[in-house]
């Protein structure tokens, strides 16, 4: 395992070595015994697809940047290759965020499949072996973001992702989504009749992820398992007691496996049912606070009803750019964080810009002494000084 888990770190320092910030020492030079624990006293900073506001999503450098910037959890989407290897990739097709179109050898792989009731045409991950996927390079989803890293980094496997979290210099949690389980189970077959969900949990077990929320095991290797598919979560809860989060989409989207509506899955009886299996919900933020003509409307009671059942609420997705900020926030992402953390009172946020959320939390609710010993605080201070000096 050593080479695969060191390689991303070496690679990053190679590619980004002259960038503005200091990098971590190699994992081999650190003792994992006395790593700083994860903070659990303030809402979680969940690095959505890594620091994908800066670096192409779900790549090793995007995750390492997020760790460097203060993420509590690194978030990822798990799909499968044709040969059954679990990979970190958001879309079921490769078209929008890789250079697959430039690979003549794959030109005949384009397919149309029915995905949750829609006919989607493109290059599906499930039609490529891992070896073939590794030939591709990832690019930014949005052309208004920094494109200098396009074409530099490859797709990583679930195991490589886990290694990045476990090799971090402090305890960093993982937040994997079991993505499109219906489609994956239709197209990929594993030996002995195993399902995608079995393979997913097997991988987590291999690296020691277990234990209920806040247990000793959990605090050593924190994890939230997330899914939009309630039957997958119920199935997985038979296999592991790791905490799970039920994702909730736009009000118009039915669930992918049970075809239930938003109204049904956010009703009191359904929250009573799902709370037996999950520790929280991950709603699209506009379903918590509806938006009209780009202005916020009065918040729904979803957070209050979830909290009444001891369910955490981790909304998605927070993005710094003007076009994503509703007008009430005066084009200021800090005003948006302030609203969600202090007015709505959520328990975690999925952000594309880990550093912004981290800075906001450090300025408004710095961690207490018990969470962060003075030695590491000193190190943080020095790092901050260095980075502000370099930025200046
Ligand atoms: C998808 O394609 C199939 C086969 O061409 C067609 O029968 C079906 O109506 C299409 N479904 C949608 C939702 O467009
Ligand atoms: C959970 O496991 C039990 C025992 O193996 C089985 O009877 C049950 O059907 C499983 N439930 C689900 C939802 O898979
Ligand atoms: C899902 O539910 C909608 C609305 O109830 C219905 O029109 C549609 O046919 C259902 N789809 C499936 C695949 O069952």
TrEMBL record:
Compositional bias of kind Polar residues: 31-43
The entry's keywords: Glycerol metabolism, Glycoprotein, Hydrolase, Signal
Species per Swiss-Prot/TrEMBL record: Gossypium hirsutum (Upland cotton)
Membrane-traversing stretches: none
InterPro entries named among the record's database cross-references: GP_PDE_dom, PLC-like_Pdiesterase_TIM-brl
Residue segments, region Disordered: 31-51
Cited Pfam families: GDPD
Assigned GO CC terms: vacuole
Keyword Aminoacyl-tRNA synthetase part of the UniProt annotation: no
Name of the protein: glycerophosphodiester phosphodiesterase
């Amino acid at each position: 395992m050593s080479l695969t888990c060191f390689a991303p770190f070496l690679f990053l320092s190679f590619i980004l070595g002259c960038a503005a910030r200091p990098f971590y020492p190699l994992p081999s030079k650190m003792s994992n015994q006395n790593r700083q624990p994860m903070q659990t006293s303030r809402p979680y900073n969940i690095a959505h697809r890594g620091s994908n506001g800066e670096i192409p999503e779900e790549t090793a450098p995007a995750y390492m940047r997020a760790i460097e910037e203060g993420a509590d959890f690194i978030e990822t989407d798990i799909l499968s290759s044709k040969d059954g290897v679990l990979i970190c990739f958001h879309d079921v097709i490769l078209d929008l965020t890789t250079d697959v179109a430039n690979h003549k050898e794959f030109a005949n792989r384009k397919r149309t499949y029915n995905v949750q009731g829609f006919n989607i045409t493109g290059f599906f991950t499930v039609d490529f072996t891992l070896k073939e996927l590794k030939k591709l390079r990832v690019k930014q989803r949005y052309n208004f973001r920094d494109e200098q890293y396009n074409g530099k980094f490859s797709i990583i496997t679930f195991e490589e992702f886990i290694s990045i979290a476990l090799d971090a210099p402090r305890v960093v949690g993982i937040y994997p989504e079991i993505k499109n389980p219906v489609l994956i189970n239709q197209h990929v077959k594993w030996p002995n009749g195993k399902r995608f969900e079995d393979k997913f949990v097997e991988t987590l077990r291999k690296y020691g992820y277990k234990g209920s929320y806040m247990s000793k095991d959990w605090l050593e290797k924190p994890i939230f398992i997330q899914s939009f598919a309630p039957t997958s979560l119920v199935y997985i809860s038979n296999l592991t007691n790791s905490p799970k989060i039920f994702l909730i989409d736009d009000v118009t989207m039915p669930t992918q496996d049970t075809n239930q509506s938003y109204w049904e899955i956010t009703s009191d009886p359904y929250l009573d049912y799902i709370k037996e299996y999950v520790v929280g919900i991950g709603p699209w933020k506009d379903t918590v606070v509806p938006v009209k003509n780009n202005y916020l409307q009065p918040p729904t009671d979803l957070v209050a009803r979830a909290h009444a059942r001891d369910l955490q609420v981790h909304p998605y997705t927070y993005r710094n750019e003007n076009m994503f900020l509703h007008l009430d926030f005066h084009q200021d992402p800090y005003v948006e964080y302030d609203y969600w953390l202090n007015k709505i009172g959520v328990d975690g946020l999925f952000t594309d810009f880990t550093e912004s959320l981290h800075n906001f939390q450090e300025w408004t609710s710095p961690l207490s002494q018990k969470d962060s010993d003075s030695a590491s605080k000193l190190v943080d201070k020095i790092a901050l000084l260095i980075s502000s000096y370099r930025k200046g």
